[in-house]
Amino acid sequence: xxxxxxxxxxxLPGDRxxxxxxxxxxLENINVSFxxxxxxxxxxxxxxxxxxxxxxxxxxxxxxTLMDVITGKTRPQSxxxxxxxxxDLTTLDPVAIARQGIGRKFQKPTVFEALTVAENLAxxxxxxxSVWASLRARLSSEQDDRLNEVLRLLRLDGERxxxxxxxxxxxxxxxxxxxxxxxxxxxxxxxxxAAGMTDAETxxxxxxxxxxxxxxxxxxxxxxxxxxxxIADRVTVLHxxxxxxxxxxxEVQANEQVIEVYLGR
Length: 265
Hints:
CATH class of the largest domain: Alpha Beta
Strand order of the largest sheet: 6-7-8-3-9-10
Largest sheet: 6 strands, mixed
Strand content: 15-25%
Order of helices and strands: HEEEHEEHEHHHHEHEHEEHH
Number of helices: 11
Number of domains: 2
Oligomer: single chain
CATH topology of the largest domain: Rossmann fold
Helix content: 25-40%
Structural class: alpha/beta
């Protein structure tokens, strides 16, 4: 399963200056507090271009707040959040951040259930228009090619004209991922993307993410350690708003602090 590279990614502005090891996202000493509660404390994290990173941690560890900071939903009290080496995400609103090439998928799939699968993808592709204007507008040949490639990649090509509300839960998850992909993101943030999927759907999701890595950078927040094991090259463990450990899954599973606070053995 190999997507057509030309359909998905545009170059980042910083690519011409980038060394291979330079991060696409770099967070430095991020601090977030809500009414005295410290959600993130001096959190630092870097994700490389084309990397597939898993972020794990118990409930309340700061995973959602981390994604909120990256997407502009929450502004930190202090710290830096740099994208593409020079874009300060803390100065941008969520719409501007999305236009920079950062896409986010929440745990519960959100699709337009009364519209067809293809209409959902077309709406996402033309996100700067109203719903009605988007539905009336014709896709360019390039946009139609990209839509067809996403349908094929997500195994939804046979569901093109089906109402999204009639899809299975797993198919809705795939459709929402597709709604991100047609926007040609550079960085995908995925919150428990395999939640509620069948075993077969989960297996295909893992294969899909491994395929997308390299063309895109992916940050996957996940509780299912079996799923993490199938996809992750590198794992970041959060605890009480801080990075507790980082490394390969084998390395973090052997970390005594991780065992104590998260893995429970």
